[in-house]
Amino acid sequence: MGIVERNVNVSLRVSLTALKLFGFWAPAGLGRRRGLLYRCYGFLSFMFLLGTYLIIQVVDLFLIWGDVALMTGTAFVLFTNLAQTTKIAAVVAHAPALRRLVRGADELLAAETGPGKLIVDSCNQETKREQILYFCLTTVTVAGWAGSAEKNQLPLRAWYPYDTSVSPAYELTYLHQVGALFAAAYLNVGKDTLVTTLIAQARCRLRLAALRLASLTDELTPNAQVTRGTRARCWPSAATGHVN
């Protein structure tokens, strides 16, 4: 049971490993006790990344109720976090079905050789480039957001049960906001690219099916005698004597 998830597709490997490290993709073979501990770890991870933000933003929304300008900014971030919470809940709730989908595609694509392997590698490169671009855009956006705060002001407006303008409360809160947002943003990239990569793998399997259909009669030549082996590969029902 390693830390890094094994998969023929690099993007899936990165996405699933990130979900596993943050407690949202349980490793295979966990017993009852370890499974419970892993779920507790996932809950603590969620509270660090999003749960705390949801609580303090809801409280702040009530405190600034009536100020449309402030409410708009707080509500925008709040609903963004709610959307990401929904994504995490969907991944955890549908983990068994996702595992079957990922495992089935991995076994099929990893077994490809020759021209089929070239199609699999092409799909791998496409999804990898997409994920790298997404990570770069996320890094630039979050770094710009983290550096936009004025002196003794937090990047994200929220309510805290203590004075965040004094040291060291300000520094610790600032580190939590920036660290949690970086982690949550990268995790969001992992969840989104997980979906897009599964779609890309479905397209890859269609291309493999098209390749097999195109090469079905490669061994046949005009006016050549059809051998029994070729007949069996091309028309299985005719070779066995069963016609639907």
Describe this protein's structure.
It is found in: Cell membrane. It holds the Pfam family 7tm_6. One of its GO terms (biological process) is signal transduction. InterPro entries: 7tm6_olfct_rcpt. The protein is mostly helical and 244 residues long. The chain contains 8 helices and no strands. It has helices at residues 10-21, 32-63, 68-93, 95-110, 115-146, 169-214, 228-234, 236-240. Helix 1 (10-21) runs antiparallel to helix 6 (169-214) and helix 4 packs across helix 6. The radius of gyration is 26 Å and the shape is elongated.
Low-confidence stretches: none
Strand content: under 5%
Oligomer: single chain
Mean pLDDT: 85
Main sheet properties: none
What class would the helix/strand composition place it in? mainly alpha
Number of strands: 0
Summed up, the helix count is 8
- Cα end-to-end separation: 47 Å
Percent range of helical residues: over 70%
Round the Cα radius of gyration to an integer and report it.
Answer: 26 Å
Which of globular, elongated, flat, extended, rod-shaped describes the shape? elongated
**SSE pattern, N- to C-terminal:** HHHHHHHH
Question: Which structural traits does this protein have?
Answer:
mainly alpha, 244 residues, elongated
Brief digest:
It is a multi-pass membrane protein. With 244 residues, the chain is mainly alpha-helical.
Fold blueprint:
Layout: H1 10-21, H2 32-63, H3 68-93, H4 95-110, H5 115-146, H6 169-214, H7 228-234, H8 236-240
Helix pairs in contact: 1-6, 2-3, 4-6, 5-6
